[in-house]
Amino acid sequence: MQNQILILDQDQVFSDLLGQLLQSQGYDVVTSKVGAVDPKDGKGIDPALVILNLMRPDGEAAGVCRSMRAASDVPVLALSPINDPNVIAGLLDAGADDHLVKPVAGGVLIAHVRKLMRRNGSLETAVRLIQPLARAQTQPLQP
Prior knowledge:
This protein has 143 residues and is α/β, with parallel strands linked by helices. 48% of the residues lie in helices and 17% in strands. It is built from 4 helices and 5 strands. The chain is globular. The mean pLDDT is 79.
């Protein structure tokens, strides 16, 4: 779904607050616990963006990002209270498309969401535009 955002989080209160913020901006929000759902599992969840709220500085966060990236190309925005450059770099290297340190202002969070949604939409649009051109180039020329 073009406007659907999946929030993966262990903290239901934070998920609810984040969901309310995103819904106030017109997004369709689905929440789940980290590891409980595959973003592209075919069960009605087809997000345009995944927000992954991470609480732990260990390798679990990077593992979640790697697993998500292996299953899908959907953009991932990681949120965490950890402001350690090595942890942030590890998350980005593991497949997160963006990272924000909590607490983060609602307006900044929404701006990052819009940026990732635009980028994802731009990629989909580019693929739709390029595919017919690629097919046309592979067809033999008629004399």
